[in-house]
Amino acid sequence: MTTSTQLPWTAPLAGGPVRATVTVPGSKSITNRALLLTALAGSGGTIRRALRSRDTDLMAGALEALGVPVTSQGDEFRVTAHGGLRGPATVDCGLAGTVMRFVPPLAALADGPVHFDGDERARQRPMGTILRALRALGCQVEGDSLPFVLHGTGQLPGGEVRIDASSSSQFVSGLLLSAAGYDAGITVRHDGPPVPSRPHIDMTMQMLADRGIEVCSDGTTWWQVSPGPIAGGDFDVEPDLSNAAVFLAAAAVTGGQVTVSGWPARTTQAGDAIRPLLEQVGCTVELDEHGLTVSGPGRLDGLDADLHDVGELTPTIAALAALAATPSRLRGIAHLRGHETDRLAALATEIGALGGDIRQLPDGLEIRPRPLRSDPGRPWAAYADHRMATAGAILGLVVPGIAVDDITSTTKTLPQFPARWAAMLAGGDG
What we know:
Elements: E1 9-10, E2 19-22, H1 28-41, E3 45-48, H2 54-65, E4 70-73, E5 76-79, E6 89-92, H3 97-107, E7 111-117, H4 128-136, E8 140-142, E9 148-153, E10 159-163, H5 170-177, E11 186-190, H6 198-210, E12 215-217, E13 222-225, E14 235-236, H7 241-254, E15 257-260, H8 274-280, E16 284-288, E17 291-295, E18 304-306, H9 314-322, E19 328-331, H10 343-353, E20 357-361, E21 364-368, H11 386-396, E22 403-404, H12 417-425
Parallel strand pairs: 2-15, 3-14, 6-7, 10-11, 18-19
Antiparallel strand pairs: 1-22, 3-5, 4-5, 7-9, 8-9, 11-13, 12-13, 15-17, 16-17, 19-21, 20-21
Helix pairs in contact: 1-2, 1-3, 1-6, 3-5, 4-5, 5-6, 7-11, 9-11
């Protein structure tokens, strides 16, 4: 991992209630799934309104390394028809969980050795579950974490596999996404505590079904994908609702009003859960043909929320809770200790450094009201984590002097974040 030498980014202070209409780029989760499924189809297609960020560029690069022609222009990726996956290859996962966990099951269908590696922090993220599963399905893999080498033979028997996916839903989605190309498809059975972030698995299953693949599941403990051809063709990506939540939070903390245009009426994105969460802290939330509009209250209320299925919203919700007038308890998120950074420890450290009353629980965070004040000699640490960086920006709207040490970490899923944030504060389209 490259260490940043940039100067800290001074988070702009809101001069009053924020009022703006914001357009956010496409969903990272949907973009990377669409890229992989189009590559597996082999017949080509264009992913439109895609997110262009470090994570999606890493996915495109991984596919190219496996012999899939991928080109990009603006917010589009074009996947050209090809004759199959091939090795030898080297895949750079960066810090992208969707690359390190989705691409190995695909690479099992390539012919030849495929070397996987990534950023320093990526080498610490859990990988053993999916690599053991691939071995059980008939694939040869050297190593249990990054870096590792997978020896593809051009096919995989597939079948039934049992895993404990309680640390990440990506283990389930990764196995399901490429399973239509396995001889017997796959049945994934989960043994262990409840799988976190299940809406992401629902997204995977829906996108497979939309491509003509037969899928079935009980929704909590087993998922099945039948073998068969995957339809190619063009695909339109929804706005990234988890990234959109950051802009909506600006309305909440300043008592303003922000509209995110293009908010889907129906979606499998976990970020859609921001709507009832914002209502819990006192916001007014309205979804209509113009998008989702959030109006902030005069005072934020604390909340008691189980974020097990929507853990990616935790940094945003924690920032709101740190500014609330009553206590908050965020539960069901022990799995966040294995994300880009240990997000629970990071949030406790950074909010605590502002004078916040926050403590870690076995499965979450408890936050109590206390005035916040920045330390001019200590920037808000992003920990190379895009959602930690944006949480600092939210707090910086109302706490003078906050500076984020690594705002470039937002390029992972939200490119040009500082410019988008500034545009929102100016009342324009962020």
